[in-house]
Amino acid sequence: MSEPYVKLEIINEVGYIEFFHPAHNSLPGNVLAKLAQTITDAGTNDVIKVVVLKSGGDRTFCAGASFNELININDEATGKVFFSGFANVINAMRKCPKFIIGRVQGKTVGGGVGLAAATDYCMATKFAAIKLSELNIGIGPFVVGPAIERKMGLSAMSQIAIDANTFYAPEFAKEKGLFTHVFDKTEELDEAVKNTAEHLCTYNTDAMLEMKKVFWQGTDHWDALLAERAATSGRLVLSDFTKEKLKTYK
């Protein structure tokens, strides 16, 4: 497993969407675009009743956006496009008419926390610590913030955004509503995800659609909101502070 990918596999009416990148599942723009489109396609596929979002590899669910691309941003327009990557995925998840179950097998950082927060029901392992590290490089979790705030509350989101050096334990994430269950082993997580998804497939799809509308009520403005947030990040990433910080990652 060395090449990045996004794939969709349908098993027993469950659409398993898996993404992977060899750099700890940090996601460049082309992978994010494919992920957003795959989620949209799964939402319109009549064979699929429930979606599962997962990543390849063992110990990292998603390390956020690609640093290689971030370092090479030199103008605001490019910055906005870059930060719109996660915005487009979150909006695709929000608009998907089917429940999305998250499978978080390991650490998740930045945009990865946003992906977990945008699922409708998210399960994890004891290795799934979370961190919002954006403030470390002079930006902030602007794009993923609304999804995290919606799921965990403003207080918890503020705490982990300000404490940008700390990995918070999955138990904290469970207590704050990001995760529903935390398992000791990945095998236990996979069994629970499978059982939950397949059980949901026995429910009335119209009822699940109406419930999804209720869960996401009040977010109709997110297309514009997340675009504005992406522009903010795109501007800040050009600051002298951030440019100096990014040099240390080269």
Word description of this protein:
- It is a single chain.
- By secondary structure, the chain is α/β, with parallel strands linked by helices.
- It has helices spanning 29-44, 67-71, 76-95, 111-118, 145-152, 154-162, 170-175, 186-200, 205-215, 222-236, 240-247, and strands at residues 5-11, 14-20, 50-55, 60-62, 100-104, 107-109, 121-125, 130-131, 181-183.
- The strands form two sheets. Strands 1-2-3-5-7-9 form a six-stranded mixed beta sheet, with helices on both faces. Strands 4-6-8 form a three-stranded parallel beta sheet.
- Helix 4 crosses helix 5 (145-152) and helix 5 (145-152) packs across helix 6.
- It is globular and about 55 Å long.
The helix content, as a percent range, equals: 40-55%
Residue-averaged pLDDT, rounded? Answer: 96
The portion of residues forming beta strands comes to: 15-25%
Low-confidence stretches: none
What's the Cα radius of gyration?
17 Å
Task: Give the number of DSSP strands.
Answer: 9
Strands ordered across the widest β-sheet: 1-2-3-5-7-9
Order of helices and strands: EEHEEHHEEHEEHHHEHHHH
- How many helices? The count is 11
Distance between the termini: 24 Å
Largest sheet: 6 strands, mixed
Decide which structural class fits the backbone. alpha/beta
Draw up the topology in text.
Elements: E1 5-11, E2 14-20, H1 29-44, E3 50-55, E4 60-62, H2 67-71, H3 76-95, E5 100-104, E6 107-109, H4 111-118, E7 121-125, E8 130-131, H5 145-152, H6 154-162, H7 170-175, E9 181-183, H8 186-200, H9 205-215, H10 222-236, H11 240-247
Parallel strand pairs: 2-3, 3-5, 4-6, 5-7, 6-8, 7-9
Antiparallel strand pairs: 1-2
